[in-house]
Design a protein that fits this description.
The protein is an all-alpha fold and 214 residues long. Helix content is 65%, strand content 0%.
Length: 214
């Protein structure tokens, strides 16, 4: 098992220790961070599908996830909302990186609600969906790196990912969120707003250009 696998396993166990409301906060924040990727995917469709129609459903689902995190209740029809999220989840046809990231966003929004509908739902393993977009982007960057010519050979893929600044920031955020939400979500609603703000590191950003060799 690689160090990356160890980290994901530890994070999964950490998520499993969260209360239902805290889990809603973490996954709603993750979905909110990835929402721009879903919107970009939906609006880029050129096949005549009404993908953009899923945007308001997803936006509403995310806000209901935060509502559940803050109060533990909602007047929304949660099972119906979960069904609507299933309808708008990418998955038909050829999979692309964009559709995968859009799917990750919907999955996170789903879990933020599902933990209140199915209290025994195993949400820990789903944390990989929140981290998948940043890992996919980092994997592409690592693949584009030139192979060292000093005979040392390239680092293993898992080790290279753990040296990526965006991956490190995303993992650090997850641990911070778990610790903050584990102890304060019921007592300090401001913690939820902080987690929502900090979750922005889950959305991949363009890599800085490599300096030119003189």
């Amino acid at each position: 098992m690689s160090s990356l696998d160890d980290i994901l396993s530890d994070l999964s166990r950490g998520v499993d220790t969260l209360s239902t409301r805290a889990a809603s906060a973490l996954f709603a924040a993750s979905a909110a961070a990835l929402l721009p990727a879903y919107i970009e995917w939906a609006k880029a469709d050129r096949a005549g599908n009404d993908r953009a129609g899923g945007i308001p459903i997803l936006e509403r689902s995310i806000e209901i996830g935060f509502e559940l995190a803050r109060s533990g209740t909602s007047e929304a029809d949660l099972p119906s909302l979960l069904q609507r999220l299933e309808w708008i989840t990418p998955g038909r046809g050829r999979s692309t990186t964009a559709s995968t990231v859009a799917q990750d966003c919907v999955v996170c929004a789903d879990v933020a609600i599902r933990v209140h509908v199915e209290p025994q739902f195993a949400r820990g393993a789903v944390i990989e969906y929140a981290l998948e977009p940043i890992l996919l982007a980092a994997t592409a960057r690592v693949a584009a790196e030139p192979v060292p010519d000093d005979g040392s050979g390239p680092p293993t893929a898992a080790d290279a990912l753990l040296e990526d600044a965006q991956v490190l920031a995303a993992v650090e955020f997850m641990w911070l969120a778990i610790m903050r939400l584990r102890s304060r979500v019921d007592q300090d609603p401001a913690a939820i707003d902080e987690i929502r703000l900090r979750a922005a590191v889950l959305l991949p950003r363009p890599a800085a250009p490599r300096p030119e060799m003189s």
